[in-house]
Design brief:
This protein is about 40% helix and about 15% strand. The chain is built from 16 helices and 19 strands. Bound molecules: ligand NAX and potassium ion. The site of potassium ion has 12 residues, from β6 and β7.
Length: about 475
């Protein structure tokens, strides 16, 4: 059993591949082995999460996910705990494995009750797994809400019930004041939906057990790439080795966004950072950061530079985009630049032509910006974030960084997309996106492949938030930029 962290390197498999892996594993083992292993693993994690528990409420559903729950109940009963099972299903229609486990729970003396106990020390959600096909209703929906309303921990079996394991979309309505710490023990494969969209909040800390069936020839749907390796700088290096970044943005009233991106690029190790402000009345120097070279955006020669374009650009960014798209050696497009491109077919064609000319581009949309670029709604994007990122990457010939809970990085399709596990709600404050764009710019300026540059910068950006000390002042975008590591 393995705890998944932001440093974990692992492949993620969709439901269809998981089913094939399960079938192959089941065929190679005596009947009922997988479910017995799954139930035992649930019982072990339950004991680790709540070692002093007495009452353990196990809510079991109508399929094999419920079977895992029955099996766990039998194991916990044997170990002196008090499991109480509520079953939302029809015994006669249970799949054979689950029916055998139900019988084992009865034989062990487990209590079956029509309603949840009055209180519990741990709740185990074994209602639905990868077989969920429609929104939860009736008793199952009620039980899930009750679990999440209590302060006792919730352990989800395989997948939090109602969560689409492929996409992270969820039909379960979270309890408004949800208190319960969450754990999820997933079997045979890690699934992408646990790590993006609603998945991260629904699953909490994810644990993985391969049930003794490691190794598969299936193609992964996505990857957890883990922490980037440190890239030590050679002693005999100079600023020219680390590239020039030119931030272009900062229309009147929005200079701060461009300066934040510039600060981030500087602290992330770019050799030189220019800031081309679109505000004609902008100051000639930023006295707080005199290392930033402030210029007129139109005067910058981008042919040897990595441009970071869009931060605080407003509508004025439209006028400079044709030249930026045509001349920048490498490019990060953010915010208003993405909105301008979404509204303009000629700019879209120019963007797509960069890939044909071998010029790397990274785009960093949040879901609404992605929706504008894909001509759909933000809800459509959130319904399948992996697909949306892949579509953006292939339509525009770019590396797409789709921001949000479980940021997705998709490239040209030669490798699966990556899901990033660093970051938290501390980043939900103005300017943090500008900082990310600047960090990606600095990584790109070192000539790293665009996919790797984006992946590393996204990981490091989130890691700053994850390691921000409790009790320290709030993580403002300015503080984030100053922490940007190379
Ligand atoms: N067969 C085995 O030996 C193993 C099974 N495993 C478990 O089996 C699960 C998959 O089992 P299943 O394919 O039976 O799928 P589920 O247990 O997720 O549920 C499928 C059943 O629920 C019904 N259903 C779907 N959505 C519903 C809803 N919203 N309301 C009410 N009923 C709904 C379906 O009609 C079907 O009867 C995995 O997630 C995992 O927990 C794993 O433990 C590996 C071993
Ligand atoms: K479940």
């Amino acid at each position: 059993m393995q705890c998944i962290t932001s440093a974990t390197v692992a492949d993620l498999f969709d439901i269809a591949a998981t089913r094939r892996i399960e079938q192959a594993a089941a065929a190679a083992l005596p009947h009922h082995t997988l479910m017995q292993r799954a139930g035992l693993a649930v019982a072990r994690l339950a004991m680790a999460v709540a070692p002093h528990a007495r009452t353990i409420w196990i809510a079991c559903g109508p399929g094999n996910n419920g079977g895992d729950g029955f099996e766990a109940a039998a194991q916990l009963q044997h170990r002196g705990f008090l499991p109480i099972v509520t079953f939302a299903g029809d015994e006669d229609r249970l799949p054979p494995d689950a029916r055998a486990s139900l019988q084992r729970a009865r034989d062990a003396g487990v209590i079956f009750a029509p309603e949840p106990p009055a209180t519990w020390d741990l709740a185990i959600d074994a209602l639905l797994g990868i077989g969920a096909t429609r929104p939860l209703a009736n008793a199952m929906a009620d039980w899930l809400r009750q679990m999440h309303a209590m302060a006792s921990p919730v352990l989800s079996v395989d997948v939090p019930s109602g969560l689409n394991a492929d996409t992270g979309a969820s039909s379960a309505t979270p309890h408004p004041g949800a208190l319960s710490p969450r754990f999820c023990l997933t079997f045979l494969t890690l699934k992408p939906g646990l790590f993006t969209a609603k998945g991260r909040d629904a699953a909490g800390t994810v644990w993985f057990d391969d049930l003794g069936c490691s190794g598969t020839a299936e193609s992964p749907a996505a990857r957890l790439a883990g922490a980037p390796a440190d890239a030590p700088r050679s002693h005999a290096s100079h600023k020219g080795n680390y590239g020039d970044v030119a931030v272009i943005g900062g229309a009147p009233g929005m200079a701060g966004a461009a300066l934040l991106a510039g600060s981030a690029a500087l602290h992330a190790g770019a050799g030189r950072v220019f800031v081309g402000l679109l505000d004609p009345d902008a100051a000639a120097v930023d006295l707080a950061q005199p290392e930033l070279m402030l210029r007129d955006a139109k005067a910058l020669d981008l042919s040897g530079m990595t441009a970071v374009c869009g931060c605080g650009g407003g509508a004025d960014i439209r006028a400079v985009l044709p030249r930026v798209l045509a001349t920048a050696a490498a490019l990060v497009l953010d915010a208003d630049a993405l909105n301008a491109i979404a509204n303009d077919g000629a700019l879209q064609a120019q963007l797509a032509s960069r890939a044909r000319r071998g010029r790397p581009t990274v785009i960093t949309p949040h879901p609404l910006e992605a929706a504008r670029l894909l001509n759909c709604t933000a809800a459509d994007v959130q319904a399948d974030r992996l697909a949306a990122a892949r579509q953006l990457a292939s339509r525009y010939g770019v590396v797409a960084v789709l921001k949000g809970s479980g940021t997705v990085i998709a490239g040209d399709g030669s490798t699966p997309p990556v899901l990033n596990l660093t970051g938290n709600a501390r980043l939900a404050t103005a300017g943090t996106g500008d900082v990310l764009a600047g960090m990606i710019g600095a990584a790109l300026a070192t000539q790293r492949p665009a996919f790797e540059a984006a992946r590393e910068a996204v990981w490091r950006h989130g890691h700053i938030a994850d390691t921000w000390p409790a009790g320290a002042p709030p993580l403002t975008a300015g503080a984030l930029a100053r922490q940007a590591p190379c």
